[in-house]
Amino acid sequence: MNVAVLGTGVVGQTLATKLVSLGHAVTMGSRQSGNEKAAAWVASAGDLASEGSFADAASSGALVVNATSGMASLDALVAAGAQNLAGKVLVDVANPLDFSQGMPPTLNPCNTDSLGERIQRAFPETRVVKSLNTVNCNVMVNPALVGGSHTMFMAGNDDTAKADVRALLESFGWPADDVMDLGDITAARGLEMYLPLWLRLWGATGTGHFNVKVVL
Amino acid sequence: MNVAVLGTGVVGQTLATKLVSLGHAVTMGSRQSGNEKAAAWVASAGDLASEGSFADAASSGALVVNATSGMASLDALVAAGAQNLAGKVLVDVANPLDFSQGMPPTLNPCNTDSLGERIQRAFPETRVVKSLNTVNCNVMVNPALVGGSHTMFMAGNDDTAKADVRALLESFGWPADDVMDLGDITAARGLEMYLPLWLRLWGATGTGHFNVKVVL
Question: Which of A64, A181, B154, B159 is the most exposed place for a label (fewest CB within 10 A)?
């Protein structure tokens, strides 16, 4: 499958590398084609890797991953182009963390809205699925870094899109039983508002390689 | 120990009943002594149970539990009286859920502040510990309702207060290894902002008797 990974940071590179390792042709998208980090990734990632503008990537991808910085995601997606995103599954892994006031970051939006919902509203023809935003990027693509079973959430309005994302998560190593569907995209609010707790758990455990397991 | 439980709702009644069953003398506090729900609880709860105003309860308790509705907690604590709370451990189990705009509730405060922090700032001589707010009240006092091990968080500025709360949690049945200290009271922000996810997990699991376990 052709996959667009929007974003050249650690999250984007980690996801893009995993996708290539699974045999997908991945185009890493950034503001301008020729981006230094994207080009360096392409040079190291083999024949299935390419890079281009957000629009280049989105137009080539059958599936699009939003791994841009959460505060910049909507601008990035506008640059990607609604026509290039229409009808496609967009996996939104970003968190709208605002570091402009220092640490700890705040969320923007928060409480009455979420980035996942904003993306879905801005691109109504795109099938947005919020997922993977609740774990460190190494855990995203290698859940076995965390011991035992633990839970990956997803939320979105389109059931077939969630089935596609579930298959992608399983290809990353997430057991089917550990993937929990929280319903429509408004659940992105809870998934993003979990981040302040995630940050404290990171501090308390001393590692980013943790997750939570929902226990009944 | 004499314990004040502020609040007459399901959470307050559940905690008060558990505390009495453990041999504590519990005074349930409400806006006015003679509150109907508090009186009914006293009538059913035995000789260790009493009720009174918020100030009556706070003055009699060596430990104070804030189980009032989160949006009303600061007013309740002002009525309880700073002098009656000074030096004491206050376990804040409340969530500042605002249902005034319908479902889902929003949090007020949120993102840049929390109820736990507000209480600590308003009552600097009180040793506030945020805990128990991340589970249903039946699970608070009976963690075995949830299968296997799962995690209870606490946060506060005073280590001896947290040791007292840890002992209380253990008396409720929480294994020591399942209690996680997230640091100072600013972690209350993450603990309260978990509520929107908790509400979606409630919906997805179909039961309030669940929790999360932190897995490394």
Answer: B159
Interface of B with A (CB under 8 A): 104, 106-107, 110-112, 146-151, 155, 180-183, 186-187, 189-191, 193-194, 196-201, 203-205, 207, 209-216
How high is the ipTM of this complex? 0.97
Across residues A24-40, what is the average pLDDT? 98
Confidence of residue B150 (pLDDT cuts 50, 70, 90): very high
Q: Give the residue-averaged pLDDT of B124-145.
A: 98
Q: What does the alpha-carbon distance between residue B43 and residue B49 come to, in Å, rounded to a whole number? A: 8
pLDDT given for residue B123 in this prediction: 99
> What does the block give as tokens for B2?
């004499």
Rounded (10°) angle between helices B73-80 and B115-122: 20
Q: CB-based contacts of B215: which residues, under 8 Å, 6+ apart?
A: A146, A147, A148, A149, A150, A210, A211, A212, A213
Q: Residue B194 and residue A191: Cβ atoms within 8 Å?
A: no
Smallest CA–CA distance, residue B196 to chain A, in Å, is 4
Q: Nearest by CB to B212, which of A112, A146, A212?
A: A212
- Region A197-208 average pLDDT: 98
Q: What is the distance between the alpha carbons of residues B188 and B127, in angstroms, rounded to a whole number?
A: 14
Do A216 and B193 make contact, defined as CB atoms within 8 angstroms? no
The residue type at A39: A
Domains of chain B: 2-205 (3.40.50.720)
Q: How far apart are CA B200 and CA B191, in angstroms?
A: 15
Q: What does the pLDDT look like over A70-80, one tens digit per residue?
A: 999 999 999 99
Residue B184: predicted pLDDT:
98
Provide the residue count of chain B: 216
* Digit-coded pLDDT (tens) for B193-210: 999 999 999 999 999 999
* Inter-chain Cβ pairs, chain A and chain B, closer than 8 A: 109
> Which stretches within A30-114 are classed as H helix?
36-45, 54-60, 73-80, 82-85
CA distances from B176 to B165, B173, B180 (A): 11, 9, 9
Looking at residue B75, its pLDDT comes to: 98
In a 13 Å sphere around the CA of B89, the CA atoms on its Cβ side amount to 24
A49 bridge partner residues: A26
